[in-house]
Every structure is written in C-alpha cells, then in structure tokens.
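Section 3.1 - Work completed
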Amino acid sequence: MPTLSLPIRLNYASLRIPFHGRPERARHGRIHHMPHRTIIRIFMVLVGLCLAGTLISAQTSDTRKPRKFKVPPLSARIEVIVLRDANGKPLENAAVVFHPIEGDHDKGVMELKTNEEGKCVIDVIPIGDTVRMQVIARGFQTSGEDFKVDKEDLKLTVRLRRPGEQFSIYKSHSGTQHTETAPAPEKQATPPATK
C-alpha cells in the first residue's frame, strides 16, 4: 500500500529548532524525516494556539445577562396536633392535607401524616397565604377549615369526632325543626287492557 508523503519546506534556522537527524535526510524536507522532538514541539504550539482561541471566544460570548435571583418569601412553621374528641388522646397516622389557595384556584396539595404523638409539622407555606386544611382519619369525621397564615409560628389543634347518625328524610327525627314526612310512593301506571 503506497504511503502519501507531502513535501514540506521548513527553514530550520527560522524555527530555531536544532535538527539532530542526518544532514542528507534534511535536504528532502519531508515531515517523516524530522526528529520526533521537533514534531512534538510543533504539535504543542498548534494545540496552545487552539486553546487560546477557544478561551478568547468563550470570554467574548459571556456577555448575556445573568439570571436574576428571586428571594423566596418567608415561610411559616405550622404545627398541627390531631386529638380524639372523646378522650383527648393523640390520633396517629391521620392525614393532614394542605391546599394553598390563590384567589379561587387551588395551587396544589401537600399531605402529611401525624406521628404517634398526633403531631405533624410543615414549614414551606409562605406567610400571607390562605390555606385550606383537611384532616382525614379512618373511623372519624373529616375536619376542614380555611385560615390565613399571618404569623411565623402557628400551632393548630384539631379534635376529631366519631361519625354520627346520618340525617334522612325517610325517618322522623325528634328534636329537629325538619318535620317533613316521607314522600308517598308513586302509583305505577296500569297498562291498557288488550283485547
């Protein structure tokens, strides 16, 4: 397979690189006749020029505006304690759900579980926000309320009750103002007689 060799005319006196090869080979001026030190020096000079050009272009292209840092708002620490209404004992593993509200829109949901002391703590809600809090536990009525976070440290206590009897219009309830009687069942239409 033939090799390709390019004639290169180098003036070794202008490069000030001493030539340590044989003088008869230096006359041909081919790169494969140059000593290895000379090739390495030339290569290092070319790499240095490429790196310098890259650094200069990187410095000039960094004229874009830096990102503006927006300081996050101060957040409140909200501690919620969930207790049984009947005996005041803490309720473990109750779900405490926070819905931050902006206008009429819900901005998301954050749910926490209470520990064995009936407590859970959240510290990411900004001061000044309105929050809807729901407390959900198996075997208890769901509790919920809206409140405005106006202090840096809030402690809320929620007492959950066992579910009561549901109100039905089909039963008479004593002691209530609602005295409507059960509606009479509708009569079914008799089909017309066929002959």
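Second construct:
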Amino acid sequence: MKKLFFALTLLGFMATANATIVTTSSIATTISQDADEQAPAEATTFTQELKKRFIEGGPGFMGIVLICLILGLAIAIERIIYLNLATTNSKKLTEGVEEALSSGGVDAAKEYCRNTKGPVASIFYQGLDRMDEGVESAEKAVVAYGGVQMGQLEKNVSWISLFIALAPMLGFMGTVIGMIQAFDKIEAAGDMQPSLVAGGIKVALLTTVFGLIVAIILQVFYNYIVAKIDSIVNDMEDASITLIDILVAQKK
C-alpha cells in the first residue's frame, strides 16, 4: 500500500512539473512574440515622434539648425579623413632620410621624401631642397613650410566652431520668437488660456533643444579634430628638429 501511494505521489509530481514547464514555455513564447511585434512599432513611433517634434518646432528655425548640423558634420568628416591620411610614422621617415643621405646623398633623401605621403615628408623635402644653400637656409625653409602645412591642417576648422556657436543661438532666437507669438495669441484671445501658453512655450523650447543637441554633437567632433591637429603639429616640430640635427651632422 505504501509503495502504491508512493508511486501515485511520484506520478502526480511529474505531471505537475510537466504542466508547469509547458505553461512557462508557452508564456515565454507569448512574451517573445509580443516583444517582436512591439519592437518595430516602437522604432516607428520614435521616428514619427522625432519628425513630429521637428515640425512642431517650426520649419524656419529648425531647418536652419538642421543645415548647421549637416554642414558641420560634412566639414568634420572631411577633416577627420584628411588628418588620418596626414598621420605618418615620423620615426621611420627620419630613419629612412638619414639612411638615404648616408648612401645616396641629398638627391636620394629628396626622392625618399617625395615618395612618402604626409606633411612631415613635405617639410623634409623643402628643407633638403635648400640644403645646397646651407643649414640655415634649410632651417628657414623647414620653419616656413611648417607654417604652411599647419594652415592646411587647420583648414575649415573655424567653420565648425561657427556652427557650434550658431546652432544654439538660432535655437534661442526661435525660443524668443515663439514666446512673442504665444503672447500675441493671448493678447488676441483676450484671455490667458493654458492651451495657448503651453503650445507657444512648447514650440519655443523645441528650437532650443535641437540647437543644443546640434552644438553638442559638433563640439565632440571639433575637440577630436583639434586634438588630432595638435598631435600632428607636435610630431612635425619634433621631426623638424631631428632633421636639422641630421643635416648639421652631415655637414660636419
């Protein structure tokens, strides 16, 4: 009797466990299906919400802020590509120039610099090209052409800083104009209705939010570009000093 009771109890426990597993599995499947169905809807809702807020902010000021973002990003991406291409291994270049000077003279070193990309190689070439006139002339050529290369590195960067300052100012201007329009509606209605005030203030603040977002995005790119330029300029200065030392040693 005890064995029969134990067997029945075991069978009941197994049946309950199986039912629980099936129920849990079906619930998990249902939740997963609901999540899959809701994910595209949420993505679409975010896109529609962004479009809605952009339109509510007014196409005038919001459009100008968007243009600032597009132009700023275009210049930033162009500068990042240019600066990455301008980055060279100065140590390897210096060793190659020194070896070329020892084996083939100035002409071989100039040819080596001509076949190497980057501002450092261009500065080396200008210095070697004035080597016949003396070390002082070569040093002056290196300093002068270094300034030219620095100008090339900093080209159009000032436009990014302009867009960083312009975007929030346009947003603030849109905010002020939106507040003026809200008070005009209150004056025309002759009564301070909450809907009039809330609508005008919401439209006014949207321009400020978008302007600040644009400024933050461009500021990140601007700081990266400035840091990259500083790194390349420091590399150029160190390499130029090394080149002058090599030329002085070659003269001796």
